[in-house]
């Protein structure tokens, strides 16, 4: 079956996720820098989450662009990914509102870990569904960045209870790692 509806649905869900996140940003009560300073944790968690949603959307776009067909397994794998991404506004808000307390920061990492697992499951479903000469099948052979990301997310969960900034640093490092789209797919389109 074609992939157009899957792409449109996913884009819509991701747009709603970003909309919910931005609506959670409250206007400060005051017109000075002190009023803004109180909102700094909320804003920082929003920026980090916006970047993460952008990274997932960007790589999701490349992944589907490289695919020729989808099947029922891909549809369910995609819904699995969207489920975990739909928790981004909740975990972001909880983390920011509680000024990076250990449990919300750990839950944020668990949500990112499960999103990464779901994304990997979507990749695997697309590989099975597409012919062996499809770009997605040929490009997704080595998964070093994905494994490294999942390991860092997993480490960030218990690290939040030791020192929350260790977790935050790991989240930023993974975001930096994925800031550019998956080069394995882009390289296949250039050759």
Automatic annotation (TrEMBL):
GO molecular function (one): potassium channel activity
Membrane topology term: Multi-pass membrane protein
GO cellular component: membrane
Stored PANTHER family: ENDOSOMAL/LYSOSOMAL POTASSIUM CHANNEL TMEM175 (PTHR31462), ENDOSOMAL_LYSOSOMAL PROTON CHANNEL TMEM175 (PTHR31462:SF5)
Alphabetically ordered keywords of this record: Ion channel, Ion transport, Membrane, Potassium, Potassium channel, Potassium transport, Transmembrane, Transmembrane helix, Transport
Domain of life according to the entry: Bacteria
Regions crossing the membrane: 6-27, 39-57, 77-96, 103-122, 150-180
Subcellular location: Membrane
The organism of origin for this protein: Duganella alba
Record protein name field: DUF1211 domain-containing protein
Family membership: Belongs to the TMEM175 family.
InterPro entries, per database record: TMEM175-like
Pfam families per the UniProt record, alphabetical: TMEM175
Catalytic activity, as annotated: K(+)(in) = K(+)(out)
